[in-house]
Specification:
This protein has about 350 residues and is mostly helical. About 55% of the residues lie in helices and about 0% in strands. The protein has a two-stranded antiparallel ribbon. The chain is globular, with a radius of gyration of 24 Å.
Amino acid sequence: MILAAAHPVPRVTGRVPASQGPSCSTRRAMAVRTACQAAPHDMERRHALIGMLGAGCFLPSAAAQAQELGSQVSVDQLNTFQKADIIADVQRRALKALKQELTAADASSALRLVLHDAATYNVATGTGGVDGSIVTSEELDRPENKSLVPLVKRLSKVKAELDGQAEKRGQAPISWADLIVLAGAAAASLDWKAIKLGRATDAAGGEIIASQLATPIPVSLGRGDSPAPNPSPIIPIPTENASPQEVKDFFNRLGNPSSDNGEGLFSRKPPFFPRAAFVLWTAAQPDPAAAEAKLATDPAFAEWKTSYDRSRRTVTRNNYEVDFGTYYERLANLGAKFDRTRYLIPLKTANIPRL
């Protein structure tokens, strides 16, 4: 694609001495502003502009002068800004496709898919965890996972769509591990939005609050997939009717290298102590409200139900959503093997003319 032919860069009228021309930081800001204004369907132009940014300001001046319009910045030459933009584009496209397929009603099953994938993590061997193995036929055939089969089939359609887009870009297909984590985040966001819209007295105002003031759920990308199923979890995943103690025991052991469950005077808290367990377990159950009420019969969980019930009375960002994002990110990274270059691709570049 020849960027200058399709989208000419405005010329500066008047002659400005080189010594008084825009600084590198000014040219960089101009390129970023132009790139951010690119329409969602025009991501090739956006990436070319970001490439221009790299060529004009981040590469050595001699190399920048030698580059020609339409040349490329290889993956190992990408700067931090360019890498972040490529990854953000992958995430935007994935979330858009997922939100077209999923609804708020899918939140609990999407979160349960991530929880059950993470549950295979063996802290002693460093194996298992969030590696996409949950979608293998052997793992899906386990009693605790059979209810997730319909969801996986629907996500397979989304993955095929995203992989088709990636192929056109010369990009690696999205991993199952990344896709299920994004699916959980997308479905949870849809659920929160539906709740807030239901409480709003004004539809337009409710839409603004639910969309523009939504609590972000942080998700990193680059997880690899396991080529084979993982062994069943060392600690069996509690059933829907599990007691609060069973839930507590499961989360105390999940990703915990210690055997004292944080109960000693100087013991460290396990990664998923009662507060985190309350948030993650209940959100992944078919009836989250009933699950919360049941866990709250245990004093270790009761204080968090009281706190979150108070917080969730607001229709804006609340403590429950913030805590969910924190603990969900921790769960989604459990045992994951990241390749931060997985989705990176070379970018076409164009020189910024010297003024």
